[in-house]
Design a protein that fits this description.
Layout lengths: L3 E5 L2 E6 L2 H14 L1 H10 L1 H8 L3 H7 L5 H20 L5 H12 L1
Antiparallel strand pairs: 1-2
Helix pairs in contact: 1-2, 1-5, 3-4, 4-5
Length: 105
Amino acid sequence: MEPFYFRSYDRVVGISHDVNELKSEMERLINQDPACVEWHLKEGHIVAWLEYIGEKGLAELLKSVHDPNEALSRINDYLMIKKSLNIIGRPVRDKKLKFRKALVR
């Protein structure tokens, strides 16, 4: 999959390959070039990329967000919830399907 490129005018100022890298790059860029992050949020570039990589839940959370700090807060919340669901042993979709097939036989 294609990474997300944070661009400021004609140069690339950050690259993200997944949600964790997106969080790290946003933290860094909020201090160095907040207008860059704000522009990508306003134009919907980050939301489109998140949908592209399959993070539709996070994309939905960021749809109406234009403030970089609010976006970062929502990303942190999303990652925390996602991590807590994995810790409590939320069943993976494929395992559910295999279990159902076993019951049908």
